[in-house]
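Q: Hi! First time doing this. I have a protein sequence and I read that you can turn it into a structure. Is that right? Here it is:
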Amino acid sequence: MAQYEGRLDDAESEYERLLDDPPNVDKRRWLEVNLGHLAVERGDEETAKRRFAAVYADDRVDEHGANALYAVAKLAPKEHAVEARLAVMKRYPNQVAAEFALQEIVGLHRADKQFEALESLLAGMCVTLADSALGDNLWFERALVLHTELNEPDAALDAYRELFARYPKGPLADDALWEMASIYREHQLWEPAIVLLTRIADDVETSWFVGSYDSDWVDDAIYDVAWIKLVYQSDYDGAARWFRRYLKAYPDGILSDDAAWNLVEAHRLRGDEPGYWAAMTRFLTDYPESRYARRASARLEERS
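A: Yes, that's right. Below is the predicted 3D structure, encoded as structure tokens:
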């Protein structure tokens, strides 16, 4: 608390007192890292580097060593910034500090518009760190650069496929499917887009302990399948089924009134007049404040 409150002398004295007899090695290393950060706050970088070095010089591979080496990397001058962060990733690829280092490497290259160099660097790390916790992150960042910066959608698709094949249960697996679907939509390749969106929508794991593991993209995937079928494929029956699915799963979703209104339009376009007017009436009842409400009211008035 003394350190957080800016009472650095008090904090340092207490850290040093605790270091005289730490309860275990883990607590000792934690204290040493905090002393390093305290020196950074004082603006004494040389003392900070020396304190951090005492932590990562140890052969242990733990969060304290990773945090210490990462803290030193953040003190590196710009010309050595990437190299210093790479050292964190290579030595501690399974620690959170390595993820921070990766994001900063990406940011540094983007800031300098060194996109080809970034893609090449990521490609190499995808191989050398494939079995680490960074593996899927590396493939994802590489695919993003290929797609958004280098305008190589086919290569990006290959990278996303590789990510999904290598880490099908990883935290970025569904993101890879979503990004692939986005590329297909961008190029108006509706069938492969629908295949991937449907997989996202249907791939829900369940657990007796925490419930469902729905992807963050499930609601968007359901809506997008419905929209593609409605607008680009003229499959009005299919669109209606998917819009109903969205409304059933996400009655209070951010796109619920859009889905309900598009369901109205699907009935109209398929020539189902009774279904059209029934859906219109139900829409006004369920979403009286929607931006589509005035349009629905006007159509009902014209009918009467």
